[in-house]
Design goal:
There is one protein chain. This protein is mainly beta. It is 11% helix and 30% strand. Strands 1, 2, 12, 13, 14, 15, 16, 17 and 19 form a 9-stranded mixed beta sheet that branches. The two termini are 25 Å apart.
């Protein structure tokens, strides 16, 4: 098994970046979801309610700095001027909440020009915030250890998917005659895509450890999927798939399942082509009811 692709999402809910290599930090891949767009109440916007987020393309700062260095980013959108957004370092933090979370965490507001740019593009009031301290947001204690933290991702630091499992989904779609086939992997917005494993081999890794390159991860939880997977990541248009076909073949007690949520046991660099080693030993503190 090897790493086939690596992705981060600098602004939660917006366009991905593709990487040849990435640094693993305790709260996720470096630069992943450290920014979030929030409504006037400080609740993060996602593609669930705002599919137009796919039209927001974040990139490295105009000075060439890597997003992982936390100096800022550049925003691009169709018909909009490119906007450079420095990482905010001053001002009183504001409380914000990630989708469905009842716990607010402190974040810093970007410059007003960023709020105006996003509000115009999304056609709704919006503010951009930066998670200056990525250690303040805890992972669900039912599936983690004390001290495990996560950025503005929905719940876990890293999402892993498998090319063979996507092939199985597309085979189901082809067999049903659905014109949606084949669906691309980016519908599932993973961080790490692996190849070389049998379809659904990842199901057997729950509650255990895997190693990607030189970095070890706990396989904390199967990922329950939502309406975001039905959103074309280029256009924002929606259809019934893959939720409909997953509902027929991959339904768990709390939803339809695709991918695994990982928690890093350490830090380091991983790269496309790195070997992926299967489970090494059980991790009792990471087990819990399936999602």
């Amino acid at each position: 098994m090897r790493v086939a692709a690596l992705h981060t999402y600098p602004v939660k809910g917006c366009r991905r970046l593709d990487h040849d290599a990435a640094r693993v930090e305790p709260w996720g891949l470096a630069g992943d979801r450290r920014w979030m767009i929030v409504d006037p109440d400080g609740v993060g916007l996602t593609q669930r309610e705002v599919p137009a987020l796919v039209t927001v393309h974040p990139g490295p700062a105009a000075d060439g700095s890597d997003l992982a260095s936390a100096v800022g980013l550049t925003l691009r959108g169709a018909g909009r001027p490119t906007l450079d957004v420095p990482a905010p370092v001053d001002g009183e933090p504001v409380p914000v909440r990630v989708f469905r979370s009842k716990v607010a965490v402190p974040a810093r507001l970007a410059a007003p020009t960023a709020h105006d740019w996003l509000s115009d593009l999304l056609e709704r009031p919006a503010r951009l915030v930066w998670l200056a301290d990525p250690t303040v947001r805890a992972v669900d204690p039912d599936f983690s250890r004390p001290g495990d933290t996560v950025s503005f991702a929905d719940g876990y630091p890293v999402l892993l998917t498998s090319t063979a499992s996507l092939d199985a989904v597309n085979d189901w779609l082809v067999g049903s005659g659905d014109p949606a086939a084949p669906l691309p992997m980016h519908r599932f917005r993973p961080n790490v895509v692996l190849t070389g494993a049998p379809a659904w081999a990842e199901d057997g890794w729950l509650g255990q450890r895997i190693r990607i390159g030189a970095v070890t991860f706990r396989v904390a939880k199967t990922c329950a999927r939502c309406v975001v997977t039905t959103t074309d990541q280029d256009t924002g248009e929606r259809g019934p798939q893959p939720l409909r076909i997953l509902g027929q073949h991959r339904r768990g007690p709390k939803g339809v399942l695709f991918g695994m949520n990982l928690i890093p046991d350490g830090t380091g660099r991983i790269a496309v082509g790195d070997p992926v080693a299967g489970p090494a030993d059980p991790v009792s503190s990471a087990t819990g009811p399936d999602s």
